[in-house]
Amino acid sequence: MTARIGVITFPGTLDDIDAARAVRSVDAEPVALWHADADLRGVDAVIVPGGFSYGDYLRAGAIARFAPVMTEVVRAARRGMPVLGICNGFQILCESGLLPGALVRNAGLHFVCRDQWLRVENNETVWTTRYDAGAEILVPLKNMEGRYVADPATLDELEGEGRVVFRYLVDGDASQRYLGIDSPNGALNHIAGIADARGRVVGLMPHPEHAIDALTGPSDDGLGMFLSVLDALVAA
Amino acid sequence: MTSTQPALGGRIDTVEHAAATPDHPQPYRELGLKDDEYARIRDILGRRPTDAELAMYSVMWSEHCSYKSSKAHLRYFGETTTDEMRAKMLAGIGENAGVVDIGDGWAVTFKVESHNHPSYVEPHQGAATGVGGIVRDILAMGARPLAVLDPLRFGPADAPDTKRVLPGVVAGIGGYGNCLGLPNIGGEVVFDPSYAGNPLVNALCVGAMRVEDLHLAHASGVGNKVMLFGARTGLDGIGGVSVLASETFAGDEAGGGRKKLPSVQVGDPFTEKVLIECCLELFRSGLVVGIQDLGGAGLSCATSELASAGEGGMRVELDRVPLRAEGMTPAEILSSESQERMCAVVRPDDVEAFLRVCAKWDVIAVEIGEVTDTGRLQVHWHGETVVDVPPRTVAHEGPVYERPVERPADQDALVADGPERLARPSTPGELRETLLRMVASPNLASRRWVTEQYDRYVRGNTVLAQPADSGMVRIDEETGRGVAVATDCNGRYVKLDPYQGAQLALAEAYRNVAVTGAVPLAVTNCLNFGSPEDPGVMWQFQQAVRGLADGCRELGIPVTGGNVSFYNQTGGTAILPTPVVGVLGVIDDVRRRVPAGIGAEAGETLLLLGD
Amino acid sequence: MARVVVDVMPKQEILDPQGQAVARALPRLGFDGVTSVRQGKHFELEVDDDVDDATLAKIAETFLANPVIEDWVVRRVDA
Amino acid sequence: MARVVVDVMPKQEILDPQGQAVARALPRLGFDGVTSVRQGKHFELEVDDDVDDATLAKIAETFLANPVIEDWVVRRVDA
Ligand SMILES: Nc1ncnc2c1ncn2[C@@H]1O[C@H](COP(=O)(O)OP(=O)(O)O)[C@@H](O)[C@H]1O
């Protein structure tokens, strides 16, 4: 028996096949979920993948969060189902209120695609148990609206409760310094990913599903996320 | 909004009306037609053309669509392609894009196109819609687009206008390609003063399909339906044809017709992404008999080419076309270059299923006509006939010119002016300074500022992208079969010797593919030159084509397609002749690729091959 | 038929790099005296006459703007 | 110090994919009666009192808007 992990496709979703491949690569079963169906098809966990749902035209994630499938995701997440939002998926989770804060245009104003070092700040979420605390991992980052912002109270809460899951490692990264930013996008506190209070809903801008095989990615450091959730689901 | 009655107040120029008013003056010169070309149209039709017909002929007989100056030379590619070279070619020059068999039942299609002039006027949208256009070409072959490359040329890096053009072009290519979910796996960035008023924005797309899924653009099967799907048709890129509206309706109460319309188009990558997925599902479900993308010349091109390549004729009810603007005339609808549209030929029994797939993807689709056995392309507008032409005369039998060719008088002086007279660094200090100058020069500096704006990871099949000699994508996850693509051209070499320069471009792209471990299989090209009316430019063009074709024969790989872009010049000065060559290779298993770079491990042995 | 304009702006406390980029570029282009620029979005809607103000406010708050990061103003204009 | 607003909109005949996406989404969110949406940019500038209207017009035309595809309106507002 293995876990069934749903991967949602919205119009404009791009990294759904990558997310499904990552799920398969840890021997879990990917289940395709369609934006227009208010149906999670009995899955054990859900991935909201990257891309440009509805072109990201109004704001990244703003239109997708109203899709029928998202109503079900929100409901299931409140019951404790593990949910992972990657890039556009993270934006959608923020827009739908499952995660606090928002993602806005990169401070450098350009799309940024690069291999990015991250530090795992919290290895107790259901998506990160396979990592050592403080582990440094190399994962692709690629987005236009990746700068995490939240009001000071929310930031304090996230930091205080250890809900910052991933942080950009910016030591020695001079590439954007001419813009007055010392990170790829100007995210507050260099936040790359966060979790909900129970550590079951996680959103991050970088793409672990693009780092499952050194052939097609900079590393296989992303596999840990999919293995982590599998551990939790199989143990349950 | 549905189609509306003409709001300009004037009457529509029907075939009947045209026949009855032979002396009605027509603005054919403003539309770019020469006197003899216009006479030939009258000859073909046995009457004057209607406005709509004139619009169709003028766009389809333009240099861009008809290849009238280059056709005579491009034939040389066919003449030099041997049967052996043709063995793996499933579709070649003349189709939307060339297709080669790469084994294991897979076929790959690739093509490069230019969007130079629009990208100068509006860098972001011009470049974006360039990517959109080439992707639809690949899609129209029945393939899933897999990756893009973007060979670019700009004026000097520190010229003020380059600061306008370059960031816009890069943002446009990235914005469109990233949103489509196509990894960008390579390209070029070259600076030279000759491109200052005329940047080159070329875009290459590669796609793959199972061999049996190859779709060719033709409208066959009398009674089959013609479906238009994708975006609505608006006043985009109508350009010259807007003079028709003002001519025809000048002086009436509507106030003299259209104001001058912007000739740029705005891209909608989201609509294109959905259109891609929708098309692929239509192909998978076997619902498409023939398909054609709508690019330059819009519906004029799609309907006449589909009909011309089919066996019969076609009837189109133009008033069924979903419009975005009010009061559009038939001529305008036929020549609109609104992006993100496709035209398909579908069996009557499949229309319902076709519409269902489109509805699933929220893609607007309407039946606009059907395949007939009349041998004519007939277009109706609210019950009246506005076009009645033999489709071949529009699409395939346009004018062909033998332009004068002459080696420029100053070519000898140019060639004689070699590097001998340049000072050479002779001391370590001078050597150091030369090296530093070269490393810092825009043509050799890092391309990271550009490539970082392109998604190279999406779809998870990118095996090689920058920095690499060629891009490589995996096509088959089971077997690891994949393709490598590189584009190259050094315009300075081509200027010195167009024949050898083109061969050098070919050799470089060929090598860049070979060193990754892939076997080169096919060639595409984008021939960017100055004005064909300049005999010196025509000489460059002729020499480059011959050089490229002869080189291909030598290497044993065919040219499967390409694109010609003339009139690249600022004032009277042409750009460096820039025949960008793209080479595609196949690799059985991408795990055996050879990555670029040396010094990964201590103790490596360095060997220099060749001389 | 009524015309409605909705302007959506980044909140004051949120960094606005687009506006800043414009402000920084202006002096380079020879335009002096612009001390601050903020950039937001401008929507023009055509709405049926029976769409009331409460509905418009709702559209702006729940959809056109993200209250976490943006402020917005809705106004009806004469056509 | 004066406040100036510049609204930049895609020209009527130019495709506005952003506005279209919003317009298409509204009925799905349960908002009916919005028949058309166009989306553009909204700039708020603080300018010194000696910046005249001609300069503002120039800034809008040459920099904030792209005249090939956009229209724009400049207005001074009371702070
Ligand atoms: N416009 C571009 N788009 C995408 N990739 C590019 C572009 N320009 C250069 N590259 C990539 O950047 C890398 C370095 O480019 P370049 O310096 O031109 O290399 P080379 O001289 O080896 O061809 C190559 O992998 C090339 O494909």
Order of helices and strands of chain C: EHEHE
Which structural class best describes the helix and strand composition of chain B?
Answer: alpha+beta
Spatial sequence of strands, sheet with the most strands of chain B:
8-10-7-11-9-12-13
Strand proportion of chain C: 35-45%
Biggest interface, chains and residues, is:
C-D, 35 and 35 residues
Distance between the termini of chain C: 9 Å
Low-confidence spans of chain C: pLDDT under 50, at least 5 residues?
none
How would you portray this structure in words?
- Chain A is α/β, with parallel strands linked by helices and 236 residues long.
- Chain A has helices spanning 16-25, 68-78, 88-95, 152-160, 223-235; strands at 4-9, 29-34, 45-48, 83-86, 102-104, 112-120, 136-143, 147-149, 164-168, 191-195, 201-204.
- Chain A has a nine-stranded mixed beta sheet, with helices on both faces. In chain A, strands 5-8 form a two-stranded antiparallel ribbon.
- The longest helix of chain A has 13 residues, at 223-235.
- Chain B has 611 residues and is an alpha+beta fold.
- Chain B contains 21 helices and 21 strands.
- In chain B, the strands form four sheets. Chain B has a seven-stranded mixed beta sheet. In chain B, strands 1-2-3-6-4-5 form a six-stranded mixed beta sheet.
- Chain B is globular, with a radius of gyration of 25 Å.
- Mean pLDDT of chain B is 91; it is low at 1-9 and 247-256.
- Chain C is of the alpha+beta class.
- Chain C has a single domain (2-77), classed as 2-Layer Sandwich (Mth169, Chain: A).
- The chains are: A alpha/beta (236), B alpha+beta (611), C alpha+beta (79).
- Chains C and D meet through strand 1, helix 1, strand 2 and helix 2 of C and strand 1, helix 1, strand 2 and helix 2 of D.
- The structure holds adenosine-5'-diphosphate (ADP).
